[in-house]
UniProtKB/TrEMBL annotation:
Organism listed in the record: Fischerella thermalis JSC-11
Gene: mdh
Family matches, as InterPro entries: L-lactate/malate_DH (IPR001557), Lactate/malate_DH_C (IPR022383), Lactate/malate_DH_N (IPR001236), Lactate_DH/Glyco_Ohase_4_C (IPR015955), Malate_DH_type3 (IPR011275), NAD(P)-bd_dom_sf (IPR036291)
Family membership noted in the UniProt record: Belongs to the LDH/MDH superfamily. MDH type 3 family.
Lactate/malate dehydrogenase N-terminal domain mapped to chain residues: 15-153
Residues the entry annotates as binding NAD(+): 20-25, 44, 106, 129-131
Pfam families registered for this protein in UniProt: Ldh_1_C, Ldh_1_N
Name of this chain's protein: Malate dehydrogenase
Binding, substrate: 93, 99, 131, 162
Enzyme Commission (EC) number: 1.1.1.37
Lactate/malate dehydrogenase C-terminal domain segment(s): 158-316
Amino acid sequence: MYTSPSSQILCYSPRVTIIGAGRVGSTLAQRIAEKNLADVVLLDIVPGMPQGLALDLMEARGIEMHNRQIIGTNDYADTTGSEIVVITAGFPRKPGMSRDDLLRTNAKIVVEAAKQAIAHSPDAIFIIVTNPLDVMTYLAWQATGLPRDRIMGMAGVLDSARFETFIAMELGVLPRDVKTMVLGSHGDLMVPLPRFATVNGIPLTELLDQATIERLVERTRHGGAEIVELMQTGGAFFAPASATCMMVESILLNQSRLLPVTVALMGEYGLENVAIGVPCRLGCGGIASVLELDLSDEEMAALRVSAESVRQNIAWAQEILMVSNATS
Ligand SMILES: NC(=O)C1=CN([C@@H]2O[C@H](COP(=O)(O)OP(=O)(O)OC[C@H]3O[C@@H](n4cnc5c(N)ncnc54)[C@H](O)[C@@H]3O)[C@@H](O)[C@H]2O)C=CC1
Ligand SMILES: O=C([O-])CC(=O)C(=O)O
């Protein structure tokens, strides 16, 4: 067989590590590989499980027509040199629980995962997915000591996609023609912004009356819980994986997309010592910039309430971690 000299050149492929190979993590691995964005390392504490998932995904490559490597592992050494680390490790909520009810169990998991991952990939950009999302993002930021441009949380893209879905369903239009921004925390106090929602450039407020918009806003606020109640065995994972993949893609391909992203604020919107969702430009270095929208008094008040609740939970999580460190 003839071997061309250029075939000797090793081609570089970016690597995305996903910590937590459960429903969100494994679906995200599939999306990243099948979109041909990067090689994927799937890490979980359960022995054999990420290895099995990785093999299954590898066996689909011929059919899906990509050649990405998917590695399953229980060892952080295999994550070395990742460009992006996504943390989905931790418990999902059960019916009747709020996301904040997961704080006690998930804080330690996320902090430990972030520390281990940064030790092996010091140049990586981190995306946190585990709930309660805003608190986990802030804790992971503190634990890694990363500049805030390189560590962010996924929630706003998902919440905006839900708002867009409900608007599209109401109007009978294509979801991709609807654009919205949902800011604030990933919980009942999130801040959907109908004033900034459009359908192919037409303001939403021209298309729907106030009562209908308010109904869709409320459904968006409870979008996660609606699925938890329907499924009874965990939460959403298809749309969360798609939303995370959109962020991964914007970073890997330096697309500079303007997306709602959870980030530690440093005076923007008059807020600091807290992480919540605000519009950010996402490119190859992570968060390229944070956009400060000119919010109305009412919108700003809602954002402050949302931030205050996250700040209280951060303080509570820090106490839990301190006690746990002291006793272990
Ligand atoms: N930010 C968002 O918008 C969303 C957040 N979530 C959150 O993402 C998290 C994961 O959700 P699912 O994938 O549905 O849960 P899951 O239970 O299917 O998967 C979680 C995985 O984490 C693993 N894990 C636990 N401790 C670990 C550790 N120390 N190191 C490595 N892996 C560990 C478990 O073995 C499990 O495989 C939950 O906290 C959920 O609430 C889910 C959907 C959307
Ligand atoms: O609702 C949950 O627990 C999972 C989640 O964050 C979402 O789907 O928005």
